[in-house]
Design a protein that fits this description.
The strands form seven sheets. The chain has a six-stranded mixed beta sheet with strand order 8-5-7-6-10-9, with no helix packed on it. A six-stranded mixed beta sheet has the order 17-14-18-22-21-19, sandwiched between helices. Strands 23-25-24-26-27 form a five-stranded mixed barrel. It is built from eight helices and 27 strands. The chain folds into four domains: 175 residues, MoaB/Mog-like domain (Molybdenum Cofactor Biosythetic Enzyme, Chain A, 3-Layer(aba) Sandwich); 56 residues, Alpha-Beta Complex (Molybdopterin biosynthesis moea protein, domain 2), CATH 3.90.105.10; 82 residues, Molybdopterin biosynthesis moea protein, domain 3 (Molybdopterin biosynthesis moeA protein, domain 3), CATH 2.170.190.11; 65 residues, Beta-clip (Beta Barrel). The chain is elongated and about 95 Å long. It is an alpha/beta fold.
Length: 404
């Protein structure tokens, strides 16, 4: 029995759910680091975000107009209050112009909107033309309306989005403590791949080099992509010396004449965690634990099939769940959708089927073979069809294919 067959015999194919669970359990979130706000985008919070101040930090005007004290009419006094300025106290029966977001004078103050006031310029008297008199607190954003100092705002594990950056800055943060994102190196294997032009002389275009890095960046930082020829020593050296936390390979996962991945992993001293998954397309995918790097970092390898749709299936099954785990983020949950057209399944394996979502029901797309991308290019997601298929009237999980 050759090496690939021996390894396969020792590690029977896992179900699709078991494979995803194995990917999620294949590591722990990477260590926490403190980053400047601008550098924290896309990372996961390593600790809860807690307000460092009240928001707003003081009573502010919600409108352009006048801050008024007591019932009108009011005598206008002082200079107007702009955002960032410090107001003087207002005596009863007086008013001062104020801008949206400006701090209000102390006391029981209301804001009279600019469209509701009329000024007698010669006497500097402000008259109220509002439908009802402004009661104290009207059009005022009171201190602490959004949160109080010390209040939890977001839990650990939250992905830092632009909105999270804005909230953190408003709440008083200059830096955020986040999990380091895993680094990823993509190794595209095969002598038959072309970088440009039309397929010719038995060679085909490399569809995976432009396809996979944007998907992988949804879970980690892609630090490199290399083309590796069908050569055992070249592949072994590339895996052994990769600086990445996660190495992702394409092709060479089966037992063909130039499929050297299993042998290279064995020579490297890797431990297989997943070797083949009962899923179509993409069943010859694998996940391995590599020997630690020289600096002690744990390393993993995800082996994707070489066919494009099968490689995407491997990405959503193994690569993204692993990368999200390492980055401290929860894995994406499928969307439960009604089945309005019978979904044909494989007799023994889960099927990942490109589908459109129409009025919360799935519509399967053609061109769903392992080497095809035409269906995926139109798809809203991949329906997770269990063995045997699903009848009309049932429901199906739809897994989103990340869009950067």
């Amino acid at each position: 029995m050759d090496l690939a067959a021996r390894i396969g015999a020792e590690a029977p194919a896992k179900s699709w759910g078991q494979a995803r669970d194995a990917a999620r359990d294949a590591g722990e979130p990477l260590p926490a680091v403190a980053r400047e706000l601008a550098d924290a985008l896309g990372h996961a919070l390593a600790e809860p975000l807690v307000a460092l101040t009240d928001l707003p930090p003081f009573d502010t005007s919600a409108m352009d107009g006048w801050a008024v004290a007591g019932p009108g009419p009011w005598r206008l006094g002082g200079t107007g209050v702009l955002a960032g300025g410090r107001p003087e106290p207002l005596a009863e029966g007086t008013a001062v112009s104020i801008a949206t977001g400006a701090e209000l004078p102390p006391g029981p103050i209301a804001v009279l909107r600019s469209e509701h006031g009329e000024v007698e310029k010669s006497a500097r008297i402000l008259f109220d033309r509002a439908p009802s008199p402004p009661a104290p607190g009207r059009d005022v954003r009171p201190r602490g309306q959004e949160c109080r100092s010390g209040e939890p705002l977001l839990p650990a594990g939250t992905t830092v989005t632009p909105a999270v950056l804005g909230l953190a800055a408003a709440a008083g943060y200059d830096r955020l403590v986040v999990h380091r994102r895993p680094t990823v190196e993509l190794l595209v294997l095969g002598d038959e791949l072309l970088d440009s032009g039309l397929p010719r002389s038995g060679a085909v275009r490399d569809a995976l080099s432009p396809l996979l890095p944007p998907l992988l960046r949804c879970g980690g930082d892609v630090i490199g992509r290399r083309r590796i020829a069908d050569d055992f020593e070249l592949l072994h050296d590339a895996i052994r010396h990769s600086p990445a936390d996660v190495v992702v390979t394409t092709g060479s996962t089966a037992a063909g004449p130039v499929d050297f991945l299993h042998a290279a992993l064995a020579e490297t001293g890797a431990r297989l965690l997943v070797d083949s998954v009962a899923v179509r397309p993409g069943h010859p995918m694998l996940l391995a634990e590599l020997p630690p790097a020289a600096d002690g970092r744990n390393r993993r390898l995800v082996g994707l099939p070489g066919n494009p749709l099968a490689a995407v299936a491997g990405t959503v099954t193994l690569a993204l769940p692993l990368l999200r785990r390492l980055s401290g983020r929860p894995d994406a949950e499928p969307r439960r959708v009604a089945v309005s057209v019978e979904l044909l399944g494989h007799p023994r394996s889960t099927r990942l089927l490109p589908v459109l979502l129409r009025e919360n029901a799935v519509a399967p797309l053609p061109f769903d073979g392992p080497a095809m991308l035409r269906g995926l290019a139109l798809a809203d997601g991949l329906a997770v069809v269990p063995p045997g298929g699903l009848p009309v009237g049932s429901t199906v999980d739809v897994l989103e294919v990340p869009r950067p």
